[in-house]
Automatic annotation (TrEMBL):
It comes from Gilvimarinus xylanilyticus. Residues 90-236 form the FlgD Tudor-like domain. This is Basal-body rod modification protein FlgD. InterPro entries: FlgD, FlgD/Vpr_Ig-like, FLgD_Tudor. Required for flagellar hook formation. May act as a scaffolding protein.
Length: 239
């Protein structure tokens, strides 16, 4: 019985030795060093076991199974990292196509481009009896104030070209004067009277995408005119 187990152990040792030799060939990948060391350790363990009380073959099989699982996880991690890198590169490539286009992000300031339009929106949680949009230039001076009167609850969308204001698709009978405001940075302040109190509402404004940057952690940053650097995840609308 002892002879049979020793013969099986010797045969296994020969097989494992051949595997160990192959692992040391020049084309071996660097991440297979652990497998070579593991096999050498198993061979040493088999060569130094007690002939009268040899180790059960099932223990060797269990050890091989455990190593195979670890090796499989390492390969899976490598493949996932490769896929993740490819995915982020593809995202960056797609995001680069946004350069020169307009997106909407949560902000109260943006740039009016030459012959361009600023699109904005606010969410009213409840109706208001009095609402107005105030527009300030880069120096902080008020350049125009648009009275909107009472408005129902819901989303209110406006568009401004520097002179005329359109709200929810309707052109208002209001202008900033004979000459439109020129290109530049402007701040929008939307106030509404709710339950007798005046509240400033959060606005989302359109901005031109000047460039795209890929962050160190893989995040995609849009550099917006008049706004600055904004994570692409904060974009509320692609115009």
């Amino acid at each position: 019985m002892t002879t049979q187990v020793n013969n099986e152990g010797s045969a296994a040792a020969n097989i494992l030795s051949n595997l160990s030799i192959r692992e040391k060939e020049p084309e071996t990948k660097s991440n297979e060093l652990g497998q070579s060391a593991f096999l050498e350790l198993m061979i040493t363990q088999m060569n130094n076991q007690d002939p009268l009380s040899p180790q059960d073959n099932t223990e060797f099989i269990a050890q091989l199974a455990q190593f195979s699982s670890v090796e499989g996880l390492e390969k899976l991690n490598t493949q996932f990292e490769t896929f993740s890198g490819s995915f982020m590169s593809n995202q960056a490539l797609q995001a680069s196509s946004l350069v020169g286009t307009s997106v909407s992000v949560p902000t109260d300031s943006t740039m009016l481009m030459p012959e361009g339009i600023v699109a904005g929106s606010v969410d009213l949680e409840q109706s208001t009896s009095d609402m107005r949009i105030s527009i300030y230039n880069e120096g902080g001076s008020l350049v125009g104030q648009v009275p909107l009167g009472s408005q129902p609850a819901g989303e209110l969308v406006f568009r401004w070209d520097g002179q005329y204001m359109e709200v929810n698709g309707e052109l208002l009978d209001w202008t900033m004067g004979e000459e439109p405001a020129g290109p530049g940075d402007y701040r929008f302040e939307v106030n509404a009277n709710v339950d007798g109190k005046t509240e400033q509402l959060e606005t989302s404004l359109s901005a031109n995408v000047n460039s795209v940057t890929l962050g160190t952690n893989g995040e995609i940053i849009l550099n917006l005119a008049g706004v600055g650097a904004v994570d692409i995840g904060k974009v509320t609308q692609f115009n």
